[in-house]
């Protein structure tokens, strides 16, 4: 398969580590392997006494950073499509902007921009049905939701997840800034501290023009040092 999730013992709990055996492994392969491990491996759950991840919404209150691919995937969710006005559905870019405007928070600290899920509803994700306690966009949920499990993990596994989120979020920031400039739209800064965004600072990322996680190779995204550590 090209990616191995290994269970590891961390004192009294079971966690995991990751090794890659092929250069063409994509972010989607990584997500498939993590999802398989969450369902099938004997991994601890540190936030709850539940033995699995169903019916436990505890991690839907955390910070949920969003990536460029996440927004494009959310735009395919039937639940979201039902509540988007017809006018915003006509053009792909209008749809993405509408979803971001309605469901995300943007904060700026100097030149650092953070786009996260809006948690103004008492700190809970807007997509959680808090009667049934289920995710309304489950099949299209963001990368961090798919890749999180409240068990311990090896440092490299933590770094892989962080690197994917950071690159994907950088691409989303770039897209939002450029789209707002092009269309004369505003950006809703929920928090802005010493605002210093300079479009010349935007770097090229592995997410550029990508619509799906299956199009992005881990090798093109991860720092070389990290790749060398996990490639066997
Ligand atoms: S990962 Fe989230 S859903 Fe799963 S058991 Fe932990 S807190 Fe609950
Ligand atoms: S998108 Fe779904 S899984 Fe992710 S935080 Fe929201 S409700 Fe939870």
Structure class: alpha+beta
Strand order of the largest sheet: 4-3-7
- Output mean pLDDT: 93
User: Total strand count, please?
Assistant: 7
Beginning-to-end CA distance, first to last residue: 13 Å
H/E element order: EEHHHHHEEEEHHEHH
Radius of gyration, in Å, reads: 18 Å
Return residue spans where pLDDT drops below 50 for at least 5 consecutive residues.
Answer: none
Number of helices: 9
Question: Which small compounds were modeled alongside the protein?
Answer: iron/sulfur cluster
The tally of structural domains comes to 1
Shape: globular
Structure description:
The chain has 232 residues and is an alpha+beta fold. The protein has one domain (3-230). It has 9 helices and 7 strands; from the N terminus they run E-E-H-H-H-H-H-E-E-E-E-H-H-E-H-H. The chain has helices spanning 27-40, 68-74, 78-83, 86-89, 92-103, 143-147, 155-183, 218-221, 224-230; strands at residues 3-10, 13-20, 104-109, 112-117, 128-129, 134-135, 189-193. The strands form 3 sheets. The chain has a 3-stranded mixed β-sheet with strand order 4-3-7. A two-stranded antiparallel ribbon has the order 1-2. A hairpin with a 2-residue loop joins strand 3 and strand 4. Helix 2 (68-74) packs across helix 7. The two termini are 13 Å apart. The mean pLDDT is 93. One iron/sulfur cluster is lined by residues 60, 64, 125, 127-128, 135, 137, 141-142, 145.
């Amino acid at each position: 398969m090209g990616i191995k999730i290994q269970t590891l013992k961390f004192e009294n709990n079971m966690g995991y580590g990751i090794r890659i055996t092929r250069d063409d492994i994509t972010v989607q392969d990584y997500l498939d392997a993590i999802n398989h491990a969450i369902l099938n491996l004997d991994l601890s759950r540190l936030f709850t006494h539940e033995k699995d991840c169903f019916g436990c919404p505890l991690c839907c209150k955390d910070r949920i950073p969003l990536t460029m691919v996440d927004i494009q995937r959310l735009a395919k969710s039937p639940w979201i499509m039902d509540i988007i006005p017809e006018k915003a559905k006509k053009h792909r870019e209008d749809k993405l902007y509408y979803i971001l405007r309605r469901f995300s928070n943007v904060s700026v600290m100097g030149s650092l921009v953070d786009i996260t899920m809006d948690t103004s509803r008492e700190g809970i994700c807007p997509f959680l049905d808090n009667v049934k306690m289920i995710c309304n966009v489950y099949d299209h949920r963001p990368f961090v939701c798919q890749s999180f499990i409240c068990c311990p993990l090896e440092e490299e596994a933590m770094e892989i997840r962080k690197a994917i989120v950071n690159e994907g979020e950088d691409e989303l920031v770039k897209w939002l800034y450029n789209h707002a400039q092009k269309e004369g739209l505003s950006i809703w800064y929920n928090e802005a501290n010493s605002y210093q965004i300079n479009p010349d600072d935007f770097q090229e990322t592995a997410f550029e023009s990508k619509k799906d996680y299956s199009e992005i190779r881990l090798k093109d995204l991860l720092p070389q040092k990290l790749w060398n550590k996990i490639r066997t």
